[in-house]
Design brief:
Blueprint lengths: L9 H13 L7 H13 L3 H8 L4 H12 L8 H9 L9 H11 L9 H6 L2 H9 L12 H22 L7 H17 L5 H19 L5 H24 L3 H18 L2 H17 L3 H11 L11 H12 L4 H14 L17 H14 L3 H17 L9 H15 L3 H8 L12 H14 L8 H15 L4
Helix pairs in contact: 1-2, 2-3, 4-5, 4-6, 6-9, 10-11, 10-12, 11-12, 12-13, 12-14, 13-14, 14-15, 14-16, 15-16, 16-17, 16-18, 18-19, 18-20, 19-20, 20-21, 20-22, 22-23
Length: about 475
């Protein structure tokens, strides 16, 4: 028994062509039969059916459309042909002039590209033209070059104004767009001092607004603004979902964010998403992937709008997970050469432009992972000092326990159990359950080191490890 193929798929169409050829149909007649089968047997809409029967991708069909008009710069795009194919359920209604050109591309008549549901939605003028046209189903052969060219110019020109007018129609206004960006800026600014799940819920509402608007029609610049807002919102949601330990959701959100950036075609948006992807990948246990995502993010140059520091440090941290010392030290050296000690995290991208305390903390964790405990301790000390100087509204609360935990780990590497305990014990009096998932992860890491061979015989180390595990167990499941 032959393997089943999906109706309408390329293998399906190939088999159909073979069957028609075996029945003696000439090659030039086969596309029409394939289109008929796709429409009748597979339920494929006529315009899509004829394009598939001609074995043309959307972009190739657009190129041939422009070639038929005699102007390769005429502006037809694959996305517009896709919109034509979605009508009348959604998308854009094709003009009769556009249908005539598409029919020429597909080797049929323009009336073949309209089904019953299409006809029911046609304007009265177009429907009258449909009935008045004596077209037999395929374009007649040209009898006079100049006359045919003159007619084509008339038909093509008739649709240009209709298409241009579509660009003026929009379902959004500047106030709505300003509100979206204002909400994103506000939520990004208060994230450091607000419960993560609360911010995630509010961002989800923003994302729903963006999605609802994109289902309508906007001016091209407004569409790009919505795509950028969708990219930033999804990347922020992915970041926060990762903080909550919901890594599967994070990956899905980052995938959506990257798709938004591909259509927006904006370097800054790509940086937002790569920054979020690198962070989520690291805390999900994929350090090398994190480093590569961060390195790719650095290839998108955006001037001073988003500093290189977060991505450079994310790359170092990613490589540190596999003890790739050379890559880590190279990245830290790169960061040191550009580090601005006075750089804050203000502005519209403050969510991604991390503060000085967090930059030095990331550097310290990377150095600690490759055995540079003394250098790491210096970075943690600087991170602590920078954290203390921040105003309460600019502090990310998770930094206090994380700096304490990794400072303790650095002291352990330097055989200083007493120093480690001095930094870590204050955590035992706090509610770890309110902290992000990575705090619990670093607590477990420190407890594991205290329980290791080096400190196994020290009662103080054992008691501290047990207390830390208890604190970790009380955190968010």
């Amino acid at each position: 028994m032959s393997r089943q193929v999906k109706p309408g798929s390329k293998p399906y169409r190939a088999r159909l062509r073979d069957r028609l050829a075996a029945l003696g149909f000439p090659e030039e007649a086969i596309p029409a039969r394939v289109a008929e089968n796709l429409i009748v047997e597979c339920g494929t809409p006529p315009r899509t059916a004829w394009r598939l029967a001609s074995e043309l991708s959307l972009d190739v069909a657009a190129d041939r459309y422009n070639a038929v008009t005699g102007d390769p710069r005429a502006g037809m795009r694959g996305t517009r042909i896709w919109e034509y194919e979605q009508w009348p359920d959604r998308g854009v209604r094709p003009t009769v002039a556009a249908l005539r050109v598409l029919a020429t591309v597909y080797g049929t008549g323009w009336k073949s590209l309209l089904g019953l549901r299409d006809l029911e939605q046609l304007p009265a003028k177009d429907l009258a033209e449909y009935h008045a046209d004596a077209e037999p189903g395929a374009p007649p052969p040209a009898r006079g070059g100049a006359r045919v060219e003159e007619r084509a110019d008339e038909e093509i020109g008739a649709g240009v104004l209709d298409d241009a007018i579509l660009l003026t129609k929009t379902n959004v206004d500047d106030t709505q767009l300003d509100d979206l960006w204002s909400d994103l800026d506000f939520l990004g600014g208060v994230y450091t001092r607000t419960a993560p799940d609360a911010i995630l819920g509010q961002l989800a509402v923003v994302e729903e607004r963006v999605s609802a608007m994109l289902k309508g029609r906007q001016r091209p610049k407004q569409t790009q603004d919505l795509l950028l807002a969708g990219a930033k919102c999804s990347a922020m949601m992915a970041w926060i979902a990762g903080d909550l330990g919901r890594y599967r959701l994070s990956r899905e959100l980052n995938s959506a964010a990257w798709l938004y950036t591909q259509y927006a075609d904006d370097f800054l948006a790509r940086r937002w998403v790569r920054t979020s992807q690198a962070r989520v990948a690291f805390w999900a246990g994929n350090g090398v992937e994190s480093a590569k995502l961060a390195a790719d993010g650095l290839t998108y140059q955006v001037g001073g709008r988003l500093t290189d520091a977060p991505l450079i440090l994310a790359e170092a941290r990613g490589w540190s997970s596999v003890q790739a010392e050379r890559q880590v030290l190279d990245a830290i050296a790169h960061w040191t050469s550009i580090e601005d000690p006075d750089l804050g995290a203000g502005g519209e991208d403050r969510f991604f432009n991390i503060t000085k305390d967090r930059r030095h903390y990331m550097a310290g964790t990377s150095l600690l992972a490759v055995g540079q405990a003394t250098a790491a301790l210096r970075e943690f000390t600087t991170a602590r000092e920078a954290y203390e100087k921040l105003s309460p509204e600019d502090r990310w609360e998770a930094m206090d326990p994380m700096i304490r935990i990794d400072t303790g780990r650095a002291h352990l590497r330097l055989d200083d159990l007493e120093g480690a305990a001095a930094h870590v014990e204050p955590l035992l009096d706090t509610d770890v359950a309110k902290q992000p998932d990575m705090v619990r992860a670093t607590l477990k890491l420190l407890a594991a080191e205290l329980s290791g061979r080096r400190w196994r015989s020290a009662p103080a180390a054992r008691h501290l490890a047990e207390a830390l595990l208890d604190a970790s167990a009380s955190a968010r499941p």
